[in-house]
Amino acid sequence: MTASRAEKYSGAAHRRSKRLPLRVPIQVYGRTPDNHPFRGHTRTISVNAFGGNISIAAPVVPGQTILLVHSLTQEERECRVMNVSQTRRGMYRVGIEFVRSGDNFWHLYQPLQTSPSSSTSV
């Protein structure tokens, strides 16, 4: 598979920011589809400026909101579940997006994203 086909297949060509494989300790709070509350301690699988991927034991559905608490800073962010897949071990791999983006929840240096049309020449 060529590099451009691999990017398309992985979704990398459509990302708004680079995905980084980083394990950040977090606490997750939410409700199952049956409206039962859950909380759990986990680590991210990967992160980007707009959200990330996590693995949790509780079932969730795309579109619902969950709360993340960064275990090192105690910062909280409301997130929207974007996609869910069940792993062989019975866990759920969940793609999340911050409801309100714009800050650096993961505390990583990431250059601002600029589109080619927004740049000006002097």
Q: Can you offer a commentary on this structure?
A:
The chain is mainly beta and 122 residues long. The protein has a single domain, classed as Thrombin, subunit H (Beta Barrel), CATH 2.40.10.220. The chain is 7% helix and 40% strand. It contains 1 helix and 6 strands, in the order αββββββ. It has one helix at residues 3-10; strands at 25-31, 37-48, 51-56, 65-70, 76-86, 92-98. A 6-stranded antiparallel beta barrel has the order 1-2-3-6-5-4. Strand 4 (65-70) and strand 5 (76-86) form a beta hairpin. The chain is globular and about 40 Å long. Mean pLDDT is 84; it is low at 1-9 and 117-122.
How is the topology of this model organized?
Layout: H1 3-10, E1 25-31, E2 37-48, E3 51-56, E4 65-70, E5 76-86, E6 92-98
Antiparallel strand pairs: 1-2, 1-4, 2-3, 3-6, 4-5, 5-6
Q: Summarize the main sheet.
A: 6 strands, antiparallel, barrel
Distance between the termini: 41 Å
Strand order of the largest sheet: 1-2-3-6-5-4
The number of helical elements comes to 1
Total domain units: 1
Rg computed from alpha carbons, rounded to a whole number of angstroms: 16 Å
Which secondary-structure class do the elements indicate?
Answer: mainly beta
Give the CATH architecture: Beta Barrel
Order of helices and strands: HEEEEEE
User: Approximately how much beta-strand content do the residues carry?
Assistant: 35-45%
Shape estimate: globular
CATH topology: Thrombin, subunit H
Q: What's the total number of strands? A: 6
Percent helix range: under 10%
User: What's the CATH first level?
Assistant: Mainly Beta
